[in-house]
Amino acid sequence: MGQAASLPCRNGGTYVMELWYRKFINECPSGLITLHEFRRHFCNGTVGDESSEYAEQIFRTLDNNGDGIVDFREYVTAISMLIEGSPEEKLKWSFKLYDKDKDGAITRSEMLEIMKAVYKMSLAASLTKVNPLTAEECTSRIFLRLDRDKNAVISLEEFIEGALDDKWIREMLECDPNTVKVERPLRNQSPA
Questions:
Q1: pLDDT-based confidence at 15, cuts 50/70/90?
Q2: Nearest Cα to 19, choosing from 31, 29, 4?
Q3: Alpha carbons 44 and 66: distance in angstroms, whole number
Q4: Rounded to two decimals, what is the model's pTM?
Q5: pLDDT tens across 36-84, in order?
Q6: Strand partners, 106
Q7: Cβ partners under 8 Å of residue 113, min gap 6
Q8: What is the C-alpha to C-alpha distance for residues 151 and 187, in angstroms, rounded to an integer?
């Protein structure tokens, strides 16, 4: 990967892509990042081991071809979409994050597992205001509103339609682009 990739970008053209490329190459000189490296960058840049589970699921969602490595194109495509994509595109990406076994449906246990990881990381980092609901209560509320056919799973269609119709659910389910940054910790930070 010797040159910046020229991927389309709605705001700022290839200039933005070149900046992302330089940052990615600075942090990942090989142009590739493994789960171990991503977890190290992600966890050291957030709240240490508290974010490890969430980091792993984000990595698996970024790794479109399932080869265990995220390259610049996979990374920047996701970042670009999370920043500039339509609400439907963002929700499709978030659906993949929650659908851990990639079977096209989200079970209550899949949702709860990701919710617990997000809660653990968010509380440890004080990333969000304290939510009065637990991960279990959020999962139940989301399932109550989204599982329209009451078959105990949420389909992509239910996920997108339900989230678009409910601001609280959309905010709970959309992935924040800041959570997929690859950054080295500051040198004066002590390891978690």
A1: low
A2: 4
A3: 24
A4: 0.73
A5: 888 777 655 444 555 677 788 888 888 988 899 998 888 888 878 877 8
A6: 154
A7: 53, 100
A8: 50
